[in-house]
Specification:
Pfam families: Fer4_12 (PF13353). This is SPASM domain-containing protein. InterPro entries: 4Fe4S-binding_SPASM_dom (IPR023885), Aldolase_TIM (IPR013785), rSAM_sf (IPR058240), Sulphatase_maturase_rSAM (IPR023867). This protein has about 280 residues and is an alpha/beta fold. Strand 2, helix 3 and strand 3 form a beta-alpha-beta unit.
Length: about 280
């Protein structure tokens, strides 16, 4: 887990290098296990006398499995947190087949209690992140069914991601008009972009966001944490975003938001929203 010393190093890194920080998101693992450091880091920013170095307070969010519930955590959420993303896969039967605790018991009831309470905190916006799995397909549950369930049961919005095994087995799924709701998200995004003449953009890793590990190492994206070849530096070091070494070693960072230069001859340039991570592996 991250220590208070590392959290202070991250805070100093932010204050010394950025004029604006839109949001800071605690993720894991399970960040709510480390509520002391969450509270400590938030308090550092709340007590900062904002000036030209950092002009305004960032928003704080949590990505959580929603299984931890205690008065201390709720107190920190009420005081500092403005948005929470809860990992839950739908109705009890489906969720509990995918998400279990150390004792092998389903977690739906605990997650539901967490959502039911936190969604009524006026300063907090709660959303869900559901993983669309083979179990959903087996039970004839569509992505629309999942979204409808969350609206009816919790009155919250959110988003779905495809299970890796589904992405790998895309060729086995019925790609019919009747099954369009269950097509891979990347495919439906392309259909949407073509229909409404909308340009898709790649995730702005390192340019608009970055991730910090529990030990203070910096990575382009939270999906990259722990991959040694993608370590960009340390929060105890210099501002990596102005580093000539980083720019020379990862020249594509400066091109991610400029597809005309990155892929000048690609016919599907404006339909591409692939994960830029693949450029660096």
């Amino acid at each position: 887990m991250m220590t208070k010393e590392t959290a202070k190093n991250f805070y100093d890194f932010c204050i010394n290098n950025f004029h604006h920080i839109e949001k800071i998101v605690f993720f894991g693992g399970e960040p709510c296990i480390n509520v002391d450091v969450m509270e400590y880091l938030c308090s550092l920013f709340y007590n900062y006398k904002f000036d030209k170095s950092l002009e305004e307070l960032p928003k704080f969010g949590i990505i959580t499995n929603g299984t931890i519930w205690n008065e201390r955590l709720i107190s920190v959420i009420k005081k500092y947190i403005t948005f929470i993303t809860v990992s839950i896969d739908g109705e009890k039967k489906i969720n509990d087949s995918n998400r279990v605790d150390k004792q092998g018991k389903g977690t739906y009831n605990r997650i539901a209690k967490f959502i039911d309470y936190t969604k009524h905190i006026p300063s907090v916006k709660v959303q869900y992140e559901a993983t669309y799995t083979k179990q959903h397909i087996k039970e004839n549950i569509t992505k629309d069914d999942i979204s409808l369930f969350f609206r009816k049961r919790f009155n919250i919005e959110g988003f779905l991601v495809d299970e890796i095994s589904i992405e790998e087995d895309n060729h086995k799924i019925d790609f019919s008009v009747q099954n369009v709701d269950n097509l891979p998200e990347c495919f439906t995004d392309i259909l949407w972009a073509i229909s409404f003449k909308h340009h898709l953009e790649s995730c702005q890793i390192s340019r608009l966001q970055f991730a910090v590990s529990t030990s203070g190492l910096i990575y382009p994206c939270h999906m990259d944490v722990g991959i040694e070849s993608l370590n960009l530096g340390d929060v105890k070091g210099d501002n990596i975003f102005n580093s000539k070494h980083i720019q020379d070693h990862y020249p594509l960072f400066n091109l991610i938001n400029n597809k005309e230069k990155l892929c000048p001859n690609c016919w599907c340039q404006n339909l591409c929203e692939c994960c830029p991570k693949s450029f660096f592996l």
